[in-house]
Amino acid sequence: MVEIARARQLDVVTIGRASVDLYGLQIGSRLEDVASFAKSVGGCPANIAVGTAQLGLPSALLSRVGGEQMGSFIREQLIRQGVNVEALKSDPDRLSALVLLAVEDEGVSPMIFVRPDRADMALSPEDVDRSFIASARSIVVTGTHFSAPEAAQLKAIKASGGKVVFDIDCRPNLWGLAGYAAERYVKSDAVSNKLRAVLADCDLIVGTEEEIRIATGEDDVVGSLKAIRALSDATIVLKRGAMGCVVYDGNISDNLEDGIFGEGFPIEVFSVLGSGDAFMSGFLRGWLGGESLATAATWANACGAFAVSRLLCAPEYPTFEELRYFLEHGSPFTALRKDETINHIHWATTRRREIPSVMALACDHRSQLEEVAVRVDAEPSRINAFKVLAVKAAVRVAAGRDDYGMLIDERFGREALFEFARHPFSWLGRPVELPGSRPLRFEFSQDIGSQLIGWPLDHCIKCLCFCHADDPAPLKKEQQEKLRALFDASHKVGREFLIEIIAGKHGTLQDDTIPRALDELYALGIKPESWKLEPQVSATAWVRIEATIVKHASWCRGVMLLGLEAPQDQLEAAFVATAHVPIIKGFAVGRTIIAHAAEEWLAGKMSDEEAIANMAARFERLSQAWLASRERKAA
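That's the 5-dehydro-2-deoxygluconokinase sequence above. Prediction below.
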């Protein structure tokens, strides 16, 4: 066992189960009838690690996953959500645990645990680096964790000097007591004896009424609480579902109500799966943060309310920004998943990655390249191969560095999308608009959601809208409704959304033209992650644009400048002119970079390598100009 001296740098280390949970998406269906599933990280310890990380507590998971794709999914998802995975081992001999779940009715959620000899239950004392444990302020162990014989010795972590938190989390079927049934209470002296032996080492004990009884073997709740108190001075938290919780920090009376209560929240129950783990996350955020037990209980109740109002577990637990907003403002909805403001906060604070800036080669042109092909008498199908060359040019410039990206379409860019996926770019945008359409129409089908569901999760939706603040009211209404439908679809399928606005082709571009257009879209609840805008007539216009975005959407990623086939020198001047505008985060330029190579290559006058080199040189020059303008600003 390797031990490395380290300071206490973690607030929480959870130990035990980590699985892939597959949630049936047909709500109200039997598990037998479910046709499609959503995938997320699961397992009580993994959920708590995510929940506490999203609430701002540095957390880690000590567990095992299989050395296969689902194990990689668990690891990568934990990293995305801020969990330290230093102690997450890959097991080459076992598969990751799998759980199938459905929501048949309120509070009725059948589960199948597919976990004979799964990796997480093979966790052994040799997997525990005691210096890693000693780096944490608290350790969270679970009752089910102790159902694996080789893991029983892990209760010795008390010697690390941190606080020991015991989430009883008893799953009888994982103790071999209920077959595949998801029973929550099966009396067993053998299980009670094992769990009872853990209690004396704990500083915090959390469980439902059934779990409290299992932990002691007593037949009633009051008797169980008294039995725990006889063994331990730990703070005890009794979870009571819709009734919230009761916290006991001293002697136990005969009255269950004789304890500390937190504020409760009336919430429509959608799915109870994982609500206890969200509850624990909220309680730990308060308890470890030095809040009163009543406040910790309130935060726990609130986090549990979020969980029962949403389908998935860990991915949909609240962030601390989300929790604070809810505690301060509440919600007009008892079904929190229907609250657009809260959902936007969750979405904006749980993005898959941070992208501080983007230098993008735009190669999503369709009609323009078709015109070139006609002009040089080339087969339009050759555009597909040209776009692969454009990706290779971008690869040459990016050279594996962050902050580079592309815009690629589906009509002519299918092979280019595959080539793009082979390289570590930071960002990809994909257009959905029918080229040149005004009023706005989507390409391929107006049922946009059915298109987006098949996209990779990290592909950003890009929609160009030719609109002006002074457009006729009927046209403006039609286009705004189209953008609103696309915004709704983007959140439904979990894809980021960029709106590109070109106003100068359909009216005079003034200082207030774009700010007014953005203001109207924000008023409709449309809050894209990013904007793509044409160069403005003055610095005043950019100041107003930034003020509008900050006013309505403080979590907006920012603005990307578009090129409109402007000469390279003109674009470089625009970079310098906007260096003082923090909201501008990058550029997405196409024809300035690719137009010459496209015409020459499609006409057969330029080889593949010459086309790649030509586009790479133009993209490199523009990228260096952008970087230089930002360095000049910093200086």
